[in-house]
Amino acid sequence: xxxxxxxxxxxxxxxxxxxxxxxxxxxxxxxxxxxxxxxxxxxxxxxxxxxxxxxxxxxxxxxxxxxxxxxxxxxxxxxxxxxxxxxxxxxxxxxxxxxxxxx
Length: 103
Prior knowledge:
By secondary structure, this protein is mainly alpha-helical. It has a domain at about 1-55. The protein has three helices and no strands. The mean pLDDT is about 80.
């Protein structure tokens, strides 16, 4: 940030203005930390649900597949990898956006 004219002339004014700026930055970082905590809780919930879905289920009576029915994914880990990659991409995009706005 460019210093204002009063900051150039008065060191006390500069110190006070910087204190306000740092307080604003601290508030923004606290808000970001709170939001990241919420994202972490959501990720843990998603992970728990995925693990629960991957657990072997009780054997059921085999059903005859319909000829026009889509095939189920043979590898459930592909879904987990796709979701994880998407979440990481969103987080990186958010961090880059935050860095650009703070610059």
